[in-house]
């Protein structure tokens, strides 16, 4: 824009010192600095807005291309599905229901277990219950203390 080197800046500052005067020069320089800063910020905001609009246009174009691609895929899926349905109906048209055997047994239906959990729990092996810590008998507090009390070994001499 402006080709300013050190000699031109020195000439401009000397002229400003003579015209404005040494008393008002600092306040004028401060005002000019704030105005230049505001101008730079305004130019940066305008540039950012232009970049945003350009990116928005690019995104709109990309969105349109993706939508057309999705529509094409959807159309091809629908045509393939209709072709499959037509082929399937032609293939199964000659079959009657008395000759048809299901390929797999029907899935099992859910039955509420009710009170069978006691049976299942009783069918568990004793060694598994012992390993898992399942209580098989009700113990009183004193019996539990006696059971888990460390064994005293008497010394035989």
From TrEMBL:
This is Sec-independent protein translocase protein TatB. Keywords: Cell inner membrane, Cell membrane, Membrane, Protein transport, Translocation, Transmembrane, Transmembrane helix, Transport. One of its GO terms (cellular component) is TAT protein transport complex. It comes from Limnohabitans curvus. Belongs to the TatB family. It is a single-pass membrane protein. GO terms for biological process: protein transport by the Tat complex. The lineage of its organism: Bacteria, Pseudomonadati, Pseudomonadota, Betaproteobacteria, Burkholderiales. The Tat system comprises two distinct complexes: a TatABC complex, containing multiple copies of TatA, TatB and TatC subunits, and a separate TatA complex, containing only TatA subunits. Substrates initially bind to the TatABC complex, which probably triggers association of the separate TatA complex to form the active translocon. Transmembrane segments: none annotated. It comes from the Bacteria.
